[in-house]
């Protein structure tokens, strides 16, 4: 992995494959049993842990852009799991929080998701899990540092694909 020669040697590719395979049971659980998408679940769980917050702060914590956050929040509000409160003096200033129904959903769903997490980690020893946790923390810090210093231009998805280098 330190000297990749093929796609399968790349850390991000391997993490993506792991995430895809490991997420499948959670997606089926969320969507099939509870009628909530993975994105909605992420926001519901963040609100359960963090309480009332501004939608922009939720977007940052969920690592989503504001448009996707807004669409998911609208769906959660429509389903009755999230309440959006707007400040009377400034209609642009809003906070979102879980409703009682949203809190009950989180209380039901989180233990099931945690069980899937335990099942995935069951092939590792306690020492392996501690080492994995420490490694993930170091990789996260390095990724954030690389992202903060990235000099490459943002992709223009709305304008179409970027041209390949000449």
Summarize the structure.
The protein is mainly alpha-helical and 166 residues long. Helices cover 62% and strands 9% of the residues. The protein has 6 helices and 2 strands; from the N terminus they run ααααββαα.
Distance between the termini: 28 Å
Task: Please indicate the percent range of residues in DSSP E strands (runs of 2 or more).
Answer: 5-15%
Report the uncertain regions: none
Q: Report the CATH topology name.
A: Arc Repressor Mutant, subunit A
The CATH architecture category equals Orthogonal Bundle
Helix content: 55-70%
Task: Write up what this structure looks like.
With 166 residues, the protein is mainly α. It has one domain (10-144): Arc Repressor Mutant, subunit A (Orthogonal Bundle). The chain is 62% helix and 9% strand. The chain has six helices and two strands. The chain has helices at residues 11-34, 38-50, 55-62, 66-78, 100-121, 126-148; strands spanning 82-87, 90-98. The chain has a two-stranded antiparallel sheet. Helix 2 packs across helix 4 (66-78) and helix 3 (55-62) packs across helix 4.
Pick out its properties.
166 residues, mainly alpha, Arc Repressor Mutant, subunit A, two-stranded antiparallel ribbon, 6 helices, 2 strands
What are the SSEs and their pairings?
Blueprint: H1 11-34, H2 38-50, H3 55-62, H4 66-78, E1 82-87, E2 90-98, H5 100-121, H6 126-148
Antiparallel strand pairs: 1-2
């Amino acid at each position: 992995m330190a000297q990749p020669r093929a796609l399968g040697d790349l850390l991000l590719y391997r993490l993506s494959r792991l995430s895809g395979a490991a997420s499948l049971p959670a997606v089926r659980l969320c969507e099939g049993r509870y009628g909530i998408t993975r994105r909605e679940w992420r926001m519901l769980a963040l609100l359960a842990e963090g309480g009332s917050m501004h939608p922009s702060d939720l977007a940052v914590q969920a690592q989503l852009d504001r448009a996707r956050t807004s669409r998911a929040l609208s769906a959660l509000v429509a389903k009755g799991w999230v309440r959006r409160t707007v400040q009377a003096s400034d209609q642009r200033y809003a906070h979102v929080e879980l409703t009682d129904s949203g809190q009950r959903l989180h209380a039901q769903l989180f233990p099931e998701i945690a069980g899937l997490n335990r099942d995935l980690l069951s092939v590792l020893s306690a020492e392996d899990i501690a080492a994995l946790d420490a490694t993930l923390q170091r990789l996260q810090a390095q990724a954030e540092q690389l992202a903060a210093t990235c000099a490459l231009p943002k992709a223009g998805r709305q304008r179409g694909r970027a041209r390949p280098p000449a």
